[in-house]
């Protein structure tokens, strides 16, 4: 676009110039380097379907990151009946990006979890999932170089998550307990958390544990024990995840938006999606993900970095700082998909759009 007509608006007490040429997101993304500030074209209005809110989309938005990839659409399951099958909520669809960092099991998988650390140690997997907070030991003091003083451990509650198995420790453990130092012999499974913290779990520790990755040659023992596995959504997609499969989320962050989330989901579609991560242009920014679709149309801000105050535009700086800190995690979060109707101010009959 060589010459652009502009319209002046008022935002956060600063003059913003908006292009008068309304464009779909695809065109804006192809012509602009992100981030870019846009707002909904004044001749378009979005009417939210029940349960959704359209307030954010009607605010100026900072388009921050373009995302292309596979996603899984699913519905919340309220009950599963042998005769009638799964009964699902008529709620908005739950969207699972392939990179979502949660762990699922297939609902029809009859294999059982392990209930003690000693069972995990007998199999010695590469990685396993701990579904509940579990007590372990964390080293707070290293042994003295001369060996005159043993290391000192502290009892900690490890958060649910995936642990990598390192080795088995069988010796005295010196640890603090109720402001006293206790020393007793233990057998522990030495593990490393997802953030690299080494924790020792005593063999007698109880919990709910599933296999994530096993070592070569462990198949005979696994077949005898019938131990359950968990999978992430990316692995299930690669393995051929199909429609109507029912999965249960055992460990992972639920959607931030209300959707009657039940942790049990029925797969209803797998798609290749093209979206853009955006954020409201305000001092209290909120993120959202927009489909790159023909409708609705937007206009671009032409002078955000040159408004009064120049590059020190505090609102813009606040939003960019917020996005740089949170956009990566938000990209891979579970989300709730709402439908909107695109309505033209000049038309009596609204044009439907599923974005």
From TrEMBL:
Q: Please state every residue range assigned to the domain named CABIT.
A: 90-278
The record ties this protein, via InterPro entries, to: CABIT_dom (IPR025946)
Output the superkingdom of the source species.
Eukaryota
Taken from the record, one Pfam family name reads CABIT
Q: What is this protein called?
A: CABIT domain-containing protein
């Amino acid at each position: 676009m060589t010459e652009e007509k502009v319209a002046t608006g008022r935002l956060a007490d600063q003059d913003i110039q908006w292009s008068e040429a309304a464009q779909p997101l695809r065109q804006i993304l192809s012509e602009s380097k992100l981030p870019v500030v846009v707002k909904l074209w004044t001749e378009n209005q979005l009417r939210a379907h029940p349960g959704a809110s359209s307030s954010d989309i009607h605010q100026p938005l900072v388009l921050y990151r373009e995302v292309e990839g596979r996603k899984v659409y699913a519905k919340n399951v309220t009950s599963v009946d042998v005769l009638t099958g799964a009964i699902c909520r008529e709620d908005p669809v739950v969207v699972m990006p392939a990179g979502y960092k949660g762990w699922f099991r297939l609902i029809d998988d009859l294999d059982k979890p392990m209930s003690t650390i000693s069972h995990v140690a007998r199999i010695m997997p590469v990685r396993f999932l701990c579904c509940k907070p579990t007590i372990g030991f964390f080293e707070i003091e290293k042994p003295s170089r001369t060996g005159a003083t043993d290391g000192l451990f502290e009892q900690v509650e490890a958060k649910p998550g995936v642990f990598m198995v390192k080795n088995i420790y069988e010796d005295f453990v010196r640890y603090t307990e109720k402001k006293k130092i206790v020393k007793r012999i233990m057998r522990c499974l030495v593990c490393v958390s997802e953030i690299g913290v080494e924790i020792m779990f005593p063999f007698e520790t109880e919990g709910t544990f599933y296999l994530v990755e096993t070592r070569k040659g462990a198949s005979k023992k696994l077949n005898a024990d019938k131990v359950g596995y968990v999978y992430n959504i990316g692995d299930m997609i690669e393995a051929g995840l199909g429609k109507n499969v029912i999965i249960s989320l055992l460990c992972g962050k639920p959607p931030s938006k209300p959707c009657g989330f039940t942790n049990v989901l029925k797969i209803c579609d797998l798609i290749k999606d093209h979206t853009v991560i955006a954020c409201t242009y305000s001092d209290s920014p909120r993120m959202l993900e927009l489909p790159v679709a023909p409708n609705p149309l937007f206009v671009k801000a032409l002078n955000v970095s040159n408004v009064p105050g120049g590059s020190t535009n505090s609102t813009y700086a606040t939003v960019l700082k917020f996005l740089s800190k949170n956009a990566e995690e938000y990209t891979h979060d579970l989300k709730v998909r709402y439908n909107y109707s695109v309505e033209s101010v000049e038309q009596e009959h609204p044009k439907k759009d599923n974005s």
